[in-house]
Design goal:
Blueprint lengths: L2 H4 L11 E12 L2 E13 L2 E6 L8 E4 L3 E5 L1 E7 L21 E2 H6 L7 H17 L2 E7 L11 H14 L2 E4 L6 E5 L5 E5 L1 H18 L2 H4 L1 E3 L11 H14 L3 E2 L6 H11 L3 H7 L7 E4 L6 H10 L2 E4 L1 H6 L7 H6 L4 E3 L8 H16 L7 H15 L16 E5 L11 H8 L5 E6 L2 E5 L2 E2 L4 H17 L11 H4 L13
Parallel strand pairs: 1-4, 1-5, 6-8, 7-10, 8-9, 9-12, 13-14, 14-15, 15-16
Antiparallel strand pairs: 1-2, 2-3, 5-17, 10-11, 17-18, 18-19, 19-20
Length: 497
Amino acid sequence: MDAAFTRLPLGARPPGRWALAARWVVADTPAGRRLVEHGEVVVEDDRVIHAGSPFAGEVAARYDMGEALIGPGFVDLDALADLDTTVLAFDNQPAWRKGRVWPRSYVERGPYEMYSHDELAFQKRFAFAQLLLNGITSALPIASLFYREWGETVAELDAAAEAAGALGLRVWLGPAYRAGGMVVEPDGRLEPVFDEARGFAGLSEAVAFARRSHGAEGGLVSALLAPDRVETCTAGLLAETMAASRDLDCPVRLHMAQGAMEVETVRRLHGATAPGWLGRHGLLSDRLIAPHATVATDDDLALYAAHGVTVAHCPLVAGRHGGVLRSFARLKRMGIRVGMGTDTTPPDMVLNMALGAMLCRVVEGDATACSAADLYDAATIAGADALRRPDLGRLAPGASADIAVFAMDDVHMTPRIDPIQTLILGATGRVTRATVVDGRLSMRDGQVAGIDLASARARAQTQFDGLLAKYPQRTHGHPPLAEIFPPSYPPMEGGHA
């Protein structure tokens, strides 16, 4: 890496017109995406003014990244903004016995916030830093509501907007809201409970937040409406949500077609799959982003295709829980836009692209079903198009200066072949050397503007451990923590097995 580049201040735009040069550059041209060897990207203020072969004009500085790949920053349509509790379910099932569904006894005592406001604000800041470490420049954050009193608060979303500005991350924000949730009865039955008035109150707060915050932090913050999961919503709440999205001209993200509990609940309540239910009410549209589609039926996918719904493909979190998209290639053949999401720890988009490619080929039984370029385009162009932002996910004149730089001389990625294939075969975003957002240097060599990651990591672990200690309170039967999350192997006691 250029020595002068290592001296640039984090969190600021380099002065004047400047260039990043590297062995390879991904450039978007009117004829399509191209890979340029010995290319460069030129930035002025917050915009790319050139991407391709060496720039003939004058620049204030040129930073040579050496054996690296320069590409557009990733667009994460389902980006974790949390200390990930889904990892607790990796080896601990069924979820309703492991604190992932509220027991009736907990509901009757009154659900409460298990984090303070400061803890909620911190976890979003910490999560945003993790996204930048992995070359993610645009994110639609998501956090679990399992340990919340009900939904996200406007105060924590205000803190999230401030964190995005301080760290330099482009975000679509909106407090998550819902009209209900699942409860475990004493006999183990799962029952939905609803409070629609509370859902409408949450939507009203979300709309007010959207009007007030859109364009904040120098344009880094955009509006998003984020009803929680489809089984926690009513038709009325979703109808008002889609109407508000048209009025605000903003996307809606709604998790559906993602799991057995949802399928069973929605069929019991509405006699249809979730996409079928929304289709019946005219609530599917090209503003809708729908993670994960792993249990989508043929009819569901046909509805997605007909109405322009974008699927946020999150192969890592799905695969951890035995789910798979069937398949990335098939959805693309159907004309469904497929963007990428991370939705778990680590928020490693490169790993998700790698796993997405592998699972697609396994499901299709065909090694030619998809390419590295297909997944790379999904993580960049498709996500940007879902957000109606043609200036994102691309490196071309006029595009926003959102850039990710990846080391191609890493010892773990040898021998190197084509750089896009090498990156995805390597299956790790830990080779991300720098992340630029809006022309600002947000991350370089593992350091993120506005946060001390070493101390933040220690604080995150302490905070997570504190949350774990509260799990027996909100777990069916209230077993001790060691029973909810037993170790992989029995602990050795007294020096003897």
